[in-house]
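Standup notes, structure subgroup. Blocker cleared on the pyridoxal-5'-phosphate input:
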Amino acid sequence: MSRMAEVFAAARAEERAVLIGYMPAGYPTLAGSIALIETMVENGVDIVEVGLPYSDPLMDGPVIQLAVSKALAEGTKITDVMTTVEATAATGAPALVMSYWNPIERHGPEQFAADLEAAGGTGIITPDLTPEEAGPWMAATDHHVLDRIFLVAPSSTPERIQLVCRASSGFVYAASTMGVTGTRTSVSVKAHDLVERTRGATPLPICVGLGVSNGAQAAEVAEYADGVIVGSAFVSAFEKQDNAADGVHAVGALAADLAAGVRARARPTERLEMS
Amino acid sequence: MTEQVFAHRPDPQPDATGHFGKFGGRFVPEALMAALDELDGAFRDAWSDPEFIAEYNRLQRTYTGRPSPLTDATRLAEAAGGARILLKREDLNHTGSHKINNVIGQALLTKRMGKTRVIAETGAGQHGVATATAAALLGLECVIYMGEVDTARQALNVARMELLGATVIPVTAGSRTLKDAINEAMRDWVTQLDTTHYLLGTVAGPAPFPEMVREFHAVIGDEARAQTLELTGKLPDAVAACVGGGSNAIGIFQAFLEDPDVALYGYEAGGEGVHTPRHAATLTGGSVGVLHGTRSYLLQDEDGQTIESHSISAGLDYPGVGPEHAFLRDTGRATYESVTDTEAMDAFALLCRTEGIIPAIESAHAIAGAVRLGNQLGPNATILVNLSGRGDKDVATAADWFGLTIESSSE
Ligand SMILES: Cc1ncc(COP(=O)(O)O)c(C=O)c1O
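Run returned:
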């Protein structure tokens, strides 16, 4: 069983959802991003998504755009992303990379997969790659035994959901809304429906991302999904503070709140109190 | 001649999955896939519907002012080694450039799909102005994304768009130019697919955009081919066009792809020189990668990060290029060269003084290329040049370049 599969199995045994946290490598600095990830894991993040900063992040909203442009201004390279993955793996949490396709294509899909495997990474999320264009990527990730996570969206037809699920391994990423990353006051009702539609197509865990920003929302999503993915909220928690120490503290506090949220579904009474 | 849109185009590209050889395709978030499928279906359905084609042709005739004339540029020819130079006058179209051809097609398609809002990116502002124009004509809501750097250097076009009722949103992300405006338009689109069509302005982006935009511009080549035959009794020896994203070039190339004796030349923005870091010459100075949903040539570093382009011409200042050009480059069917800022501005001045035509700086790149080509091919050659736009929008930039002062009349 892969490290990630173990994490999902353990969470299932505890009747809770898995908490997946995103942080771009090199934000606010290389060492700073590693410190943030360590804090996230210490406070209950189960799986870490290490963002590969990219110049044209068209699926990201303003919060993550700003963070990755800061990381790029810091001079963050693919090698730094691999360093961050290594540090993440050292915490014991499975480390995924989230990357737009072009940096992988440019690095060479085979080389990228080899480097990630060597760094101790377990898989990759590719938000702008669909199975239709993934030929060389399927081969490279099979060869290096990495999970490749594709996305389903509220607009996906049943045929496309089948296609995405067949191509995916590890888990399937359900984008909760028709939009970009960013915190929202409520998680779209479309998310639940999408998860239900995806269930029929795959035995893989299904994790919901886009828009989750606090424990209450995480608890709501944990009702129907196997995992809750949080990105922008972590970045804003850090960004809002005036200094790095307070930022790290805020990120840790948010992780703890979210970690309580993904456990809340096992305790119906608490759920009642919350609503 | 605008009646027979498909007439002589056996071109098999792209294939059924939107690829031109290894180029093109769709590299987009899953959320956009359904919209692209819908668009693809709607386009194919419309473009084989005689009623839609008749309406497109009617607007092109009565509103754009097509067919655009062909001008025999005899005084310019003297500076071009005596080769005969024929100018396809897309600058005389309503709104001042070729961009309107595509916009009319896509705006009609928007209505046909039952959508009420169009969004677009713009660099020079020409595509934004054309989109705002068609939106006004057809009663569509219109939002234009424009990099903040471009809103400053093309202020006149910002005012034109606003006069036409469009909302112009300056984009402050990234390099604050055309590429960032495209990112922002994509982000807008994905949240409002039910009401909104993304009216992409060039032959780039995910399938079906490169093919669809090409088809709406094919009228340029169809007309120019017939006009050249009528005027000279033969096909031209070469066809020249500037290449930003590549729409005006594909539009005129298309009619000649199956004519092996007609050489096709695309001129990219060489900025301060392709050997410097400040240029926008993707096909001659870039490498293969994926940007804005398509695989093509682009300017990127060793990690696949997009490198900011540079050109005096906002409309050519784009680090990517349409996938069909990448295909034509690699198959050798078309030749791509770069033209520096200085060469383009020399050609700009030359066309002003010899023909009484102030070209768009984008189009001045094609003129510079044609002059270069004329000197190589000699006096027996005929070169057809796509004069893609007029230069009114560039008067301030040109005045600055040539050291003229413009007095403000409002004070
Ligand atoms: C007059 C003119 N020509 C050419 C271009 C470049 O675009 P394309 O390469 O798609 O024709 C532009 C773009 O704004 C333009 O305004």
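Discussed briefly. DSSP finds 15 helices and 14 strands in chain B.
Next: hand off to the docking folks.
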